[in-house]
Amino acid sequence: MVYSNDIKEEVRSRNDIVDVISSYVSLKRSGSNYMGLCPFHSEKSPSFSVSASRQMYHCFGCGASGDVFMFVEQYENYSFVEALKFLAERAGMELPAIEMSPQEKMKASVKQQLFEVQKLAAGYYYYMLHQPQAKNAYDYLTGRGLSEETIKKFGLGYSDAGGQGLYKYLKSKNYSDEILKQAGLFTFDEKKGTYDKFWNRVMFPITNANNKVIAFGGRVMSDAKPKYLNSPETILFDKSRNLFGINYARTSRKNYFIVCEGYMDVISLHQAGFTSAVAPLGTALTPLQAGMIKRYVDTVYISFDSDEAGVKAALRAIPIFKNAGLTAKVINLKPYKDPDELIKACGVEEYEKRIEEAIGSFYFETQVESTRYDLKDPEEKMKFIRQVAGKLITFSEEVERNIYCDAVADRYGIDRKEMKRLVNHLGATQISQGSSGKEKMHSKKVKGNDSDSAMKLPQRILLTWLGDDVTLFEKVKKIIEPQDFKDELYNKAAAILYKQYEEEGKATPVRIPGMFEEGGEQEEVARIFTTDLKGELLRNFGQDSDSELTKEIKERAINQIVYRVKMQSIEDTLRSSTDFDVVKKCGQQKKELQNLHITLNAD
Q1: Residues 6 or more apart in contact with residue 180 via CB below 8 angstroms
Q2: Prediction pTM value
């Protein structure tokens, strides 16, 4: 499906990248850019940069780079067309109807058939639950207090013990093995043949936010292992990007989500009237799942099991919620193990009361930490205070930090002034140690990355600089031509950039990655144009990375960079050519480079 460049640019212009990414990631202004924790890999210190001026993002940790389309593609696991439609809808734009190419029609057909297969499988499992051979499974569900209405609402079912029932059913619907192989519901074995992946299990359909079945979870009805089994990842299903119950929770009209541990917790809570309950899919909470929640609400109530494993899971989830910009509170379920047990024992009103009494995530972390020390012992108490102070320095807002300092001091009998003094001391020490250590780490990454090799680094800096400054382009184009960028990808990117200047009188680097077909190439080109220009210039041509970027440093930098790029190009040409005229021209260019002197306009 092909949309014109005009339509793409209109969609882009109506979706400011900072606004879009802020709905997924908590961003804070840092100079001219915005920084946050990368949603594509796990990290503790923000290395994910979003540029409002360039309308591009780049992670200095994992290297993810791109424009607003590429972010949505990567985060939502969308194709480009799906990302375009998503952003158009977000901006209130109606896209024109466009004919699909044969390849696009094929992809769309496969996806549609897979949705149909999942839906039919859900219907089959639901039907089987109401057959005589499913009595144990049905009794298990009703024994857990689920009504027929709830069973129907969630489409709960049963996979029979025969091992081939679903496969035979779907084959009777004329689905090919090629499609069924991609559904994640069957095992294809040359010796044993084809059989259902799920058998003798209570089945839980997993739906996306649009209420379409995309996968299944199954609880075994015997002593077989594993107790719970999920569909493998498919074209439709990525467990790190989905939440059980999200299809109902997003329409619950609550201003918070309740996050539980498993399927039955969610279903029991929904039956009790708590329709904003969701759960991760058999694994620990992921940043992508937290980002999904952030689209709908700003607050989460953690309702994990009250045992040690549940407490640890809550402690792991809290920073993930916080990094996504969510306020997290923890529900106390004790002396009961899970929400279902509490509601059955004490009723809905008691669970509502527990929600009202839920404590903030910081208090919860502090409370758990306090149980690890003997607070009557002065030495042990001092260790505890240092641990708490270490958590307090993570608050970026001074007012908030002081409020919590006072509250903790009062709760644990600590002098307020001494508590604040300790927090300030630890914060100052961390900043002092962290700045030098971070710089060394960054430099190490730069040296180890092929994109920043001795040959590519000056080319990358130059292309980024040219994309930012039209006055520089006018000076450099007389010396550097696109063919001087010898790497094939850099050469293509430079040719497009030069053409933009020639035809439009300005550069729009954000449009360049989309002109490459391969996803890897798009990301590499995006990485070129999201270079930290100021940082690279200071790192390579200034005294240190914290000094001021003066006109003198910039002029020294541009002259050295242009010299290196042009000289690399000349040497490469001389190695590959024996033509006398070419060799003579290269010699002349070398002489001209000796007199190179580019002056820059004053800032």
Answers
A1: 117, 167, 170, 171, 186, 194
A2: 0.67
